[in-house]
Amino acid sequence: MKATEDPLLAGWDLLRRGGWKEARAMFAAALASPLGATSEATAAEGAAAAAWWLDDDDEMTERYEQAYRCYRSVGDDRGAARVSAWLGNGAVQFRGEPAVAQGWFQRARRLLADLPEGAEHGQLTLFEGMAACLRGDLTGALEHADRTMEIGRRQHSPDLEIQGMALSGTAHVSQGRIGEGMRLLDEAAAAALAGEVHEVGSVWIPTCYLVQGCEQTRDWERAEQWCGRVMDFCRRFDLGSPFSRCRTHYSTVLLWRGDWEEAENQLLRAADDLSEQRPRFAAEAWARLGELRRRQGHWTEAAELFERGRPLPAARVGLAELLLDRGDAADAVELVERVLDGLPKEDRLARAPVLEVFIRVAAAERPDLLAQAVDELIDLASDVGGDALSASALWAQGVRSAAEGRTDTAITMLTRAVELFESARGPYDAARARLDLASVLTAGGRTGAAAEEALAAQGAFERLGATADARRANRLVGLARRTPTGELTSRQIEILRLLAVGLTNREIAERLVLSEHTVKRHVANILTRLDLPSRAAAVAYASRVDLL
């Protein structure tokens, strides 16, 4: 800085260029000297902005509140409203305090009410729209996004216009309007990364929403094209938590592609950094790491990680899959059903991964619940498109057909699902669908084909390191090659016969003078030992091996 240069102006220039640490030091030095109220407000606001990007929440809040008091003391309502908006945004984005955020947003609206329109009106509108998006109010988010873009154009602010465009894009994507939403996100990210915005910090929203959109739509090719550029930008400007969150989202691409070693590396580093920087966001990394551990067969560690991320639907859904892995299908259904009920119907893409797990656990315990969930997933895949989601919809149709006893249809659908998962370069999902196909083939008496599919699934699981799934596949290989009921006890064979003629657990318990809980446990063990996906599959199996 030149000797004659205003340190406050120099500090704000550093902020615009991403020099967070240098700006913070400059503002701190200014605040250590006697200042008038206006200069103190400017310095405190600058220090808060630097602390925001350096992940220092305590200083950010303290300095913004200091700036607010100073602006109010000199009657600068525009300045007070501006920092009120940032305080509200910090409360909802970083600390999960929507009531506090609402208080600051309302204060900002009141202070701006009688002032000519300025950039502050657009910034407040943007932050309110982002908060609406977080709580699932996508219609409200779109309305705020449109107003932000309009204000940006009137105020000749590309920062506002591009960030509003990104908010509009992510809301469209979440509603299932993928084409329009992703076009907006691509455009906003391209313009922001190219330097069209005036402030480096304005790149955060477009790029963050773009990476999230790729993950939601399972557009892995687009994600690979953008993630490298976004992560390079984060490194260049020392964006701590945004970089770590980008790592978290990128790990999903790696998990899908089957690069579990690199996914683990990215998640461990992200979880470690976010635990220090933004503990609330660390839950995202923990949930994804929990899913990796579940797939690897490290179930105790997976359960611990899911519990750490439990506020997130992804963590609770992971716990449900873990319950199913451990043979507790009833509790798995109950848990994932609660998660699904808590997600707005409007937030269609957020429901997709929950629907998939619901279908898997319901097929094992409550096939009567399948129809509505399968239909919703089919409709979503039809609207969204893409191989990954289309493959999931085919798999769901196959699972429902198997539960309904339509074996030939189930085989056709599951075969197509395997092919499409492989086309989308998703080896784990392809192997799981192949294993479901092997179970249906076994129940239908086509043991040779079942053994082939189970062997192929086992090989894929072993290459990935999915040890529990590999063992399951190995059992199914053996089942297809052995005497049909060789692994069942006499009591289990007796229960299977009664199950096959349509008796409920309660009716079987009464017939055999057992507790209903004992019958339920026997049924679960039968399905596990025969590696069958549902009671309906068990009925078909019993018919094939002449147990009726």
Keywords:
about 550 residues, 29 helices, mainly alpha
Low-confidence stretches: none
Mean pLDDT equals 89
Secondary-structure-based class equals mainly alpha
Biggest sheet: strands, sense, closure? none
What proportion strand? under 5%
Which descriptor suits the 3D outline? elongated
Q: What is the H/E string?
A: HHHHHHHHHHHHHHHHHHHHHHHHHHHHH
- Helix share of residues? over 70%
Distance between the termini: 89 Å
Number of strands: 0
Count of runs of 4 or more consecutive helical residues: 29
| Cα-based radius of gyration, to the nearest Å | 28 Å
Task: Please provide a written account of the structure.
This protein has helices spanning 7-16, 20-31, 37-53, 57-73, 77-94, 98-112, 119-134, 138-154, 158-175, 178-193, 204-217, 220-236, 240-257, 260-277, 279-296, 299-308, 313-325, 329-341, 348-365, 370-384, 387-403, 407-423, 427-443, 447-464, 467-481, 490-500, 505-512, 516-530, 535-544. It is an all-alpha fold. It is elongated.
How would the blueprint of this fold be written?
Elements: H1 7-16, H2 20-31, H3 37-53, H4 57-73, H5 77-94, H6 98-112, H7 119-134, H8 138-154, H9 158-175, H10 178-193, H11 204-217, H12 220-236, H13 240-257, H14 260-277, H15 279-296, H16 299-308, H17 313-325, H18 329-341, H19 348-365, H20 370-384, H21 387-403, H22 407-423, H23 427-443, H24 447-464, H25 467-481, H26 490-500, H27 505-512, H28 516-530, H29 535-544
Helix pairs in contact: 1-2, 1-3, 2-3, 3-4, 4-5, 5-6, 5-7, 6-7, 7-8, 7-9, 8-9, 9-10, 9-11, 10-11, 11-12, 11-13, 12-13, 13-14, 13-15, 14-15, 15-16, 15-17, 16-17, 17-18, 17-19, 18-19, 19-20, 19-21, 20-21, 21-22, 21-23, 22-23, 23-24, 23-25, 23-29, 24-25, 26-28, 26-29, 27-28
